[in-house]
Design goal:
The chain is α/β, with parallel strands linked by helices and 390 residues long. It contains 15 helices and ten strands. It has a four-stranded parallel sheet with strand order 1-4-5-6, with helices on both faces. A four-stranded parallel sheet has the order 7-8-9-10. A two-stranded antiparallel sheet has the order 2-3. Strand 9, helix 13 and strand 10 form a beta-alpha-beta unit. Helix 6 packs parallel to helix 7 and helix 7 packs parallel to helix 8. The radius of gyration is 20 Å and the shape is globular.
Length: 390
């Protein structure tokens, strides 16, 4: 709690290392580990900008798009080894770095960071099984996902009321993903589903229907969060001319725009009592996009036979979006003026480079144009309505 206000951070990250997941591997997956050994790479303990490598920790990396060309150059430049983290994760914007290992399994340190900020709850987005799906074997992807869910269950049980997390589900194994939703969806920490249809596969494909039904049956919403340089990527990720600046500019907003239009336009919210939200994609584009979806649904069509206008699904209390703090008060206020104050959620992106640790919630609470009632919704109520009580 900060200044008498409870704080629910709607977008933080967890990227457990192979070593953190290892105790949670089931026998089926453990038998396949030799096949993944060639993809094991050193893992950063924190994924911030200061190189704090931990040689004992690893991730599986199958496909990454580093985007190394500078604009105006014909070819990528040579990259000094000590510049690797900055190229990948950006310049750190906070007053100090979060604790070492907090994105992995150092959760006592993570709790200490939360207490220092005045943050009550972290909703965690998993970076799990990234790239492994490209190997074409759903069993490998699901083995990592099952282990991630077991790990998070132990973490949340050890720190009741402090953590929510998304369930990872995949269109490459619908039956296995539905089983995971049925197994863990009743747990208090389960905040929603993070669906991955497959690289180049449409989120609105009919084969995804059992996932929406399973989530709705457990009272869980569906969440979109793009990736810049790793699967599931974003629309046009191959057309960024090998440039990191262009890729980062386009990745999250484009991915959110497309997925939002497909999810609503396919009539999924008509068929199931399921909410939908986008994370870490900014919000300044929302007024433009909501208006444009209405116009083009009428002008072009090619959506389902919707029961409402596209904008009405956004306004009816079933759509949510987390902010990016870099858009700042004026843009957040503009979106609230256009769409109301029941949609946007505070988020810091902890512990990534955009996070202004340890000042993120204090900065947002200091925005004078957002009154006390709206601030309460923004910092707590809207996230609780979307993700559930912590």
């Amino acid at each position: 709690m900060l200044n008498g206000q409870r704080v629910f951070d709607a977008d933080t990250h967890i990227h457990p290392s192979v070593e953190a997941l290892e105790p949670y591997f089931d026998s089926e997956f453990r038998e396949r580990l030799p096949e993944l050994e060639q993809y094991k790479v050193g893992a950063r303990s924190d994924q911030t900008t200061t190189p704090r490598e931990d040689p004992s920790r690893h991730h599986y990396a199958v496909s990454l798009s580093p985007y190394r060309r500078h604009l105006g150059d014909a070819e990528p430049r040579e990259v000094p080894k000590d510049a690797h983290s900055r190229l990948h994760f950006g310049e750190y914007t906070g007053a100090k770095l979060p604790g070492v290992g907090v994105i992995d399994d150092a959760f006592e340190q993570r709790i200490a960071d939360m207490d220092e900020e005045g943050t009550d709850v972290h909703m965690m987005v998993p970076d799990v099984a990234i790239g492994v799906s490209l190997l074409g074997d759903p069993a490998l992807e699901m083995g990592l996902i099952r282990a991630y869910h077991r790990l998070v269950n132990d973490i949340a049980s050890a720190h009741p009321g402090r953590f929510k997390a998304l369930l990872a589900v995949s269109g490459t194994d619908i039956e296995g993903s539905v089983a995971e939703v049925d197994r863990w969806g009743k747990e208090r920490w389960a905040a929603g589903i993070l669906p991955f249809a497959g690289v180049g596969e449409p989120m609105d494909h009919p084969r995804m229907e059992p996932l929406w039904a399973a989530a709705a049956n457990r009272g869980l919403g569906a969440v979109h969060h793009s990736m810049t340089w790793a699967p599931p990527y974003f629309p046009g990720y191959k057309d960024m001319d090998n440039n990191r600046f262009l890729a980062r500019l386009c990745s999250h907003p484009w991915g959110a725009m497309k997925t939002m239009a497909a999810f609503i336009g396919a009539g999924i919210m008509d068929r199931y009592p399921i909410n939908f939200g986008v994370l870490e994609s900014g919000v300044g584009w929302l007024p433009f996009w909501v208006r444009r979806m209405d116009v083009n649904a009428a002008y072009v069509g090619f959506t389902a036979d919707l029961q409402h206008k596209m904008s009405e699904y956004v306004a009816n209390g079933r759509f949510f979006a987390s902010i990016e703090m870099t858009e700042e008060e004026d843009i957040v206020r503009m979106v609230m003026d256009f769409l109301g104050d029941d949609i946007l959620m505070y988020a810091s992106d902890y512990p990534h480079a955009e996070c202004k640790f340890p000042d993120s919630p204090a900065i947002v609470q200091g925005w004078p144009s957002i009154g006390a009632d709206t601030m309460r919704k923004f910092m707590w109520d809207n996230a609780v309505r979307f993700f559930g009580e912590p």
